[in-house]
Design a protein that fits this description.
- Helix content is 30%, strand content 21%.
- By secondary structure, the chain is an alpha/beta fold.
- It is an enzyme of class 6 (ligase).
Length: 624
């Protein structure tokens, strides 16, 4: 099994080439004014003359919904020039998008008979809800939030649920009531939950019977929480908790959606916290509700006839990207399989059984699936596949395409944004690349002073926000104006990642800005070394950081988890063997001069390696 996992984590680092084109974007200027809401920004009710237009409009969203949901991104440069996304003064995804699809559905003009939500589980359950069903059911849940949970507009709601149908209803209900949704992963500990409830000043917590006991451990230390709603699959009740199913049965089915300004706070996401305490990033009705039209149309390539399966769990921003806003902005069907854990064979069996047309999965899932015999499965319904998180090696991409006929399109974004770059279907594929800037965004590689760098030079990934700010960018971090300010440099918002742009405008990921190792004048990204390490059969998992060195200032150090077959090997001999292996795979100066073997690596709840912890350990030892 360890050998299989080792093969599944092979990475490919593409050749760094030169240059990025600067493409300007016009949009409204956002000015954040408080920790939870945005005041009005510079009014702009007329279109600008620039070809990439994102201008404010007072026209109803439904007047351009059909145009936005149309496919046809066949020419990258033309698509960017023609890109246009009007931002109304008032916008609500529930009333202006979902309810419009319900109206089209009822009138027979949606253009598809697929459900809006198709949910299955391992026990044979098969639920299909139309947009009309979503409309009716979410109105009942909205009344529960208002009448039973005693929630008012602008109050926050923390939702910690597995991939059950009610998660989607609660999300829509928050939109309808103007309450601020805070998704949370089901992997959180009791202390994690306490921190999130306290820092977000949550007014209501919604979860299941498995997480409720964890909530109650510290609920007395969370004075902002005034109601707790239990969605139990077992039917059990819990003292001090409202029973969702009981309330749903008697809830009023009539509800009028609140009228929300585009600049009002809509959702807040805790970031992964790879560099410290998790930050709470705020998105508005425009930044996520409208911004993910870009994700759904250009990267996911969706239309109302598509059945889209995204494997992300509900606690992550990727679920908003690809399980909610992106697909439903296009009127597509969201397909969900609720399973206890990922299994490549079971996943392929589902793809064989169900007519999934577009697939979004993490790199590891593809690496594991291509190790199976794909010829055993009928995968012809899949027409478009995407992945994000880390580069996929070309062997995996080629195997997947050979087995399905579909190429994997990689993309890049973060919690604070919608999709920023992608290997769009109209682009020439380049394995290992993040692709090019998404329509609506001007992406540049910048130096420490915010100046754009020339071709081929490594720097920080910057999103141009001046003179105009693009739709699809978060507003601020809650209660942290200093950290919000540090996210900007000159005319750019900095993602915190570093990359190189080639002469054709393709971007190549290097690593997190604070993970870069500077040794003897060489700047080395950890992913480059980790990608070489994982090709050695002894390496099950690795993390590369800087380590102090009296001669070179700092050197590359690798923390390695060994596969089972190599745990009893002589460590000194194995260290030399691994070092020589890296020298043979990549530039010799990148090899790890120090290696430490570990039983496991420190990780965040989302599974990301906490390199900062390992790096601090190294440098604190020097100080000590």
């Amino acid at each position: 099994m360890a050998a299989i996992l080792k093969q599944c984590r092979l990475l490919h680092i593409g050749q760094f080439r030169q240059s990025i084109r600067q493409l300007h974007l016009n949009s409204r200027k956002l000015v954040w004014a408080s920790n939870k809401t945005l005041r009005s920004y510079t009014p702009c009710c007329t279109r600008t003359s620039h070809p990439l237009k994102v201008a404010a409009s007072h026209q109803p969203v439904r007047t351009f919904l059909s145009a936005l949901s149309a496919t046809g991104f066949n020419d990258y440069e033309l698509g960017r020039r023609q890109f246009q996304l009007d931002v109304p003064e008032y916008f609500n995804f529930a009333s202006d998008v979902l309810d419009v699809w319900a109206q089209k559905e009822q009138a027979g003009t949606r253009g598809s008979k697929t459900p809006a939500l198709w949910w299955i589980d391992d026990h044979g359950s098969d639920i299909k809800w139309s947009f009309t069903d979503l409309q009716d059911k979410s109105k009942k849940v909205a009344n529960i939030l208002t009448n039973d949970c005693d929630l008012s507009r602008d109050e926050s709601v923390t939702v910690i649920l597995h991939r059950i149908p009610e998660w989607w209803l609660v999300n829509i209900a928050c939109l309808r009531t103007g309450t601020i949704l805070i998704p949370g992963t089901t992997q959180l500990t009791a202390r994690d939950i306490r921190y999130r409830l306290q820092s977000s000043e949550t007014a209501c917590i919604i979860t299941d019977e498995h997480t409720a006991p964890l909530v109650d451990e510290y609920i007395s230390e969370c004075p902002s929480v005034k109601s707790k709603l239990l969605i139990s699959s077992s039917g059990e009740s819990r003292p001090g908790w409202l029973d969702y199913h009981e309330l749903y049965e008697k809830a009023d089915s009539q509800h009028k959606c609140v009228k929300t300004r585009s600049d009002e706070s809509m959702t807040m996401f805790f970031t992964s916290g790879t560099t410290g305490k998790a930050k709470l990033a705020v998105h508005t009705h425009a930044s996520y509700g409208l911004g993910h039209f870009i994700t759904g149309k250009y990267w996911l390539d969706l239309t109302p006839t598509d059945i889209h399966w995204n494997m992300s769990d509900t606690g992550w921003a990727k679920s908003a990207y690809s399980n909610f806003f992106g697909p439903w902005a296009q009127g597509a069907c969201v397909f969900i399989s609720y399973t206890a854990r990922f299994d490549p064979v079971h996943t392929l069996e589902l793809l064989h059984k169900y007519p999934v047309s577009t697939l979004c999965a993490p790199p590891t899932a593809y690496r594991m699936m291509v190790l199976e015999d794909l010829s055993k499965y009928n995968l012809k319904s899949i027409r478009h596949t995407v992945s994000a998180g880390e580069p996929l090696n070309p062997e995996v991409m080629e195997s997947w395409k050979a087995g399905t006929g579909s190429m994997i399109h990689e993309g890049y974004g973060q919690t604070e944004t919608v999709l920023l770059t992608g290997m769009f279907r109209c682009l020439e594929p380049r394995s290992g690349s993040m692709g090019k800037a998404a329509p609506g965004f001007d992406i540049s590689i910048v130096d420490e002073d915010g100046n754009e760098l020339p071709h081929g030079q490594e720097g920080d990934i910057g999103v141009r926000v001046k003179p105009h700010r693009p739709v699809g960018l978060f507003s601020h971090y809650v209660n942290d104006p200093e950290r919000t300010a540090r996210a900007y440099r000159g005319d750019f918002y900095l993602t915190g990642d570093r990359a190189v742009a080639d002469d054709d405008g393709y971007l190549w990921f290097v690593g997190r800005g604070d993970d870069i190792i500077n040794t003897s004048g060489y700047r080395i990204g950890p992913f480059e070394v980790e990608s070489a390490l994982i090709e050695h059969p002894a390496v099950a998992e690795s993390a590369v950081v800087s380590s102090p060195d009296p001669k070179r200032g700092e050197v590359v150090k690798a923390f390695i988890v060994l596969t089972a077959d190599y745990k009893s090997e002589d460590k000194e001999q194995l260290t030399q063997e691994i070092q020589n292996h890296v020298k043979s795979i990549t530039a010799p100066y990148k090899y790890p001069r120090k290696i430490e073997f570990m039983e496991s690596l420190p990780k965040t709840v989302s599974g990301k390696i906490r390199r900062v912890e390992l790096r601090n350990q190294e440098w604190n030892q020097k100080v000590g």
